[in-house]
Amino acid sequence: MYFASKGKLMIYVTAIFCLFTMLSTAHASFIEKNFIMKEDFERGVYTGTKFTAASGKITSDADKVVNGKYSAYLSSPPSVEWSEFTYTDMQQVKFEKNTTYAVTFSYKAVKAPDPQNQGIYYFLARSSDNDVAADTGWTVWNAKTGDKGTKTFVFTTGNKNNYYLIWGIHLGGELSIDDISVRKVSESFERGTFDGTMFQASSGTITNDPSKVVSGKYSAYLTSPKEQEWSEFAYTDPNQIKFEKNTTYEVTFSYKAVEAPDVNNNGAYYFLARGTNNDVTADTGWKGWSAKTGEQGTKTFVFTTGNKDNYYLIWGIRWGGSLSIDDIYIKKKSESFERGTFDGTRYWSGAGTITSDPDKVISGAYSAYLAAPHTADWLEFSYSSPSYIRFDRNTTYSVTFTYKTIEPSHGFYYFLARSTNYEVAADTGWTTWNGQKGETNEKTVVFTTGEKENYYLIWGIREGGAISIDDIRIDILPYQYDPNGRLKVQATPIHTIYYDYDSNGNNLRRRTEINYHI
Predict the structure, then answer these.
(1) How far apart are CA 110 and CA 167, in angstroms?
(2) What is the pLDDT of residue 494?
(3) pLDDT the model gives residue 145
(4) Contact assessment for residue 372 and residue 466, using Cβ atoms and an 8 Å cutoff
């Protein structure tokens, strides 16, 4: 139990936090299976891990450990310009060429670098030939002594072999890192074959013809004669990429129109999602598009599955043409609780449950549900996991969800975002509402985080009642500016780019994070 105040109110939270370590289904299939490495250093030594030590060590000092009993730790004096404490082992962690990866890790600033001495923590990926001109993913950050948090850095390899990852300290400080995971973010076909990917070829091939490649060295390619009505060249493997029922997903990919379809003959490129029982009446996400020969671009399609099992994605051509696709990224867009349990979602249960009672379900077969007695002052039934849904500092987000009033509250239902250090003065997005019995509606809350790390979302009830929530969707506002009108955040379906400026308004650096966490 913890006690906190909101103005004159006291929030009494009686919840046992259970942190589930799986991602939601689309991520558990597309991203989880794309993990190429995870490490928590709980062996207590580097031996047996996929890391090699440089100047670092494994510590069990409670003041230095991030999580568990052990973490990787580095101390560096201000006189040392570059000090590196751990690298991925190139023999065990292999990165494909021209491919995008996301690295997530927890950290603790044991002793902050001195910014007056230009001290920083840093991360990068370097090729084994140590050609620094080909370095990628270079990212720096600072933190106050004692700060703990989670970082996700995104980088794209070049045409070099055997990249490895580096963590270090520039000009002094102390840092611990832990819970490192490396995942392949999107499918770029740089293996040169469908083998080993999560995609199946139909009539398509993998090409390295420069006139057909979209990016990198390889792309998926299909050519189809004008007399052929439907020609399909790539499907997601339904045994590896599993989509939940009644759930919304977003698919982004790049393309090149090698030979444009004949629009006068109703020719088009197309995309859709279909159930494995091939019931075409349950197809979803159908999109057709045309492009001029040689045109390159990016498409983002959003679709919602129905009540079918094992949907798979289809790309194809109707009535002739040639098309290449590349850099396919699949993201679960909302949480619909169609697993029937909080396990494997990115949400903690709190005092709530998942219900299949038709009188309580909002959409699909399941919704999250909480009933609170009128004697309960405050009761909270669902939280977002800060380990998997990460909110950046001083950034604006919107959260949309549906709700159903099962039993009206004597007080109100509420939503807010709070940092994991439970400083209620930094709460944001505080929203309350009520409704008539049986009322179903949608609510969108826009909020801006503060200086705190690791905000998480809370839904609850004050002074009794019962409510269901469903279809939670979190978005980052696509363009955000600082008080001086300078671009601060630029978000796309795949990446969010953050811009930092010096006191004169010059752009110091930009960092890119992948949007799998939202």
Answers:
(1) 15
(2) 67
(3) 95
(4) yes
Q: What is the pTM of this model?
A: 0.78
- Tell me, what's the pLDDT at 34? 67
Residue partners of 281: CB distance under 8 A and separation at least 6: none
Nearest CA to 150 out of 110, 105, 86, 101 is that of: 105
Q: Express each pLDDT in 231-247 by its tens digit.
A: 998 899 988 888 999 99
Cα 83 to Cα 76: distance, rounded to the nearest angstrom: 6
Phi, psi for residue 34 in degrees, rounded to 5? -95, 5
Q: How far apart are CA 267 and CA 322, in angstroms?
A: 11
517: helix, coil or strand? helix
Q: What is the CA radius of gyration of the chain?
A: 25
Whole-Å CA distances, 247 to 201, 304, 310, 383, 515: 26, 5, 12, 19, 18
At 13 the pLDDT is 29
Q: Which residues of the chain have pLDDT under 70?
A: 1-34, 387, 493-495, 508-509, 511-518
Buried b (16+ CB within 10 A) or exposed e, 255-274: bbbbbbbeeeeebbbbbbbb
- Calpha distance 321→259 (Å, rounded): 5
In this structure, the chain runs to a length of: 518
Contacts of residue 120, defined as CB under 8 A and 6 or more positions apart, other chains included, come to: 113, 140, 141, 142, 169, 170, 171
The token pair that represents 320 in the structure block: 């002739």
In order, the DSSP letters of 145-209 are TT-EEEEEEEEE--S-S-EEEEEEEESSEEEEEEEEEEEE-SB--TTSSSTTSSEEESS-EEE--
